UniProtKB/TrEMBL annotation:
One Pfam family matching this protein: CoA_transf_3
Keyword Protease applies: no
Bias kind Basic and acidic residues: ranges: 360-370
Listed InterPro entries: CoA-transferase_III_domain, CoA-Trfase_fam_III, CoA-Trfase_III_dom3_sf, CoA-Trfase_III_dom_1_sf
Name of the molecule in the record: Carnitine dehydratase
SUPFAM superfamilies reported for this sequence: CoA-transferase family III (CaiB/BaiF)
Any GO molecular function: CoA-transferase activity
UniProt keyword annotations, A-Z: Transferase
Length: 381
């Protein structure tokens, strides 16, 4: 559905490349402009895939073309400007001011290309926070996420993936598509601006709303939920599982499966608010019962009873679980490149997986046509 849309991708590492891969999956011609040394993530090894390429780089760069340009060199900069002038979308995630030094800022590009949709991703905006480094770990810390992640008596913890970058990449995708829709309507381009901190604060949803309403920021609860119980990780005889009870009916069903039906009428546990107030007592009772059998056994009992429950899978198990559900979670490009499929499913114009992540500067010479709108078919098409 995005065939004919050219993206000049000056972004690197994760947030920008994630967004542009999503666009490429739906047909956009994404030209990844890299420095001569390549995107930093090309060098973040191990691990590597079957082709010896960094899996970090490969995770967000399929379906793209790569051109290495030295922006400090006159010829390289001229080529970059020419590409920006012919692109429908320009995306960058340098620190504020860097693109302006090269004459590639939004105001520069729109002089040559009035319809351009220009997406800028920063860590903390272009104002007083412009000089701050936009590292995901730093944003998780100063943005409040670490304060609510981890055990109550332990250290603050980060998410196990660069979650803020991914969230920002998703927001960038939405912003770019919104701006393209407006260009279709009016013919005018515009700048799309995102910052990592803003994306994280938006994603804090109920926790941020609670803080704004009460003036009291929530604290770490480990795997427990501030407003629902039992809604946490529990230990069975062999491994952990999650039980996610969202209402009193589900709790009554849980009590029955555990062989403790009286719990549903106990004044401490009969209503959700009471269960939240007595979560520690309830956890002890539940885990004492769960210790009698394996986690898998309890799942087979809880699911038919209508109690949301699941194993705490590792990532390999999670992918296998999705495959067992028929969700087709793995995208394959070529014979040796596998990545997680695009999560957006469209019935008429689905995502396609045409080419593996490119080698550095792969698309030069015959494969590099900066003024032609359609992407040429590469050797892996």
């Amino acid at each position: 559905m995005l065939t004919g849309i050219r993206v000049a991708d000056f972004s690197r590492v994760l947030a920008g490349p994630y967004a542009t891969m999503m666009l490429a999956d739906f047909g956009a011609d994404v030209v990844k402009i890299e420095p001569p040394a390549g995107d930093d993530t090309r060098h973040w090894t191990p691990p590597v895939d079957a082709n010896g390429q960094a899996t970090y780089f490969g995770s967000v760069n399929r379906n793209k073309r790569s051109v290495a340009l030295d922006l400090t060199d006159a010829a390289g900069l001229a080529e970059a400007r020419r590409l920006a002038a012919t692109a429908d979308v320009v995306i960058e995630n340098f620190r504020p001011g860097v693109m302006a030094r090269f004459g590639l800022a939004y105001d520069d590009v729109r002089q040559l290309n009035p319809g351009v949709v220009y997406c800028s991703i920063t860590g903390f905006g272009a104002g007083p926070g412009a000089a701050l480094a936009g590292y995901d770990l730093l944003v998780q810390a100063v943005g409040g996420l670490m304060s609510i992640t981890g055990e109550p008596d332990g250290d603050p913890a980060k998410a196990g993936v660069a979650l803020v970058d991914v969230l920002t990449g998703q927001n960038a995708l939405a912003g770019i598509l919104l701006a393209l829709r407006e260009r279709d309507r009016t013919g005018h381009g515009q700048q799309v601006e995102l910052d990592l901190l803003g994306s994280l604060l938006s994603a804090l949803t109920n926790q941020a709303a609670s803080t704004l309403a009460t003036g009291s920021p929530p604290r770490r609860l480990g795997n427990a939920h501030p407003s629902i119980a039992p809604y946490a990780v529990f230990h069975a005889a062999d491994r952990e599982l999650v039980i996610a009870v969202g209402n009193d009916k589900q709790f009554r069903a849980l009590a029955g499966v555990l062989g403790e039906p009286a719990l549903a009428d106990d004044v401490r546990f009969a209503a959700n608010g009471a269960r939240v107030g007595h979560r520690h007592e309830l956890t002890e009772i539940i885990e004492a019962r769960l210790a009698a059998a394996s986690a898998a056994h309890w799942i087979t009992m809880l699911e038919p009873a209508g109690v949301p429950a699941g194993l705490v899978n590792d990532i390999a198990e999670a992918i296998a679980f999705a495959e067992a559900l028929g969700l087709e979670p793995v995208a394959e490009t070529g014979t040796a490149s596998r990545s997680v499929a695009n999560p957006i499913r469209l019935t008429a114009t689905p995502a396609t997986y045409r080419t593996p992540p490119p080698s550095l500067d792969e698309h030069v010479g015959a494969d590099w046509h900066p003024l032609d709108a359609p992407a040429p078919k590469g050797p892996h098409a």
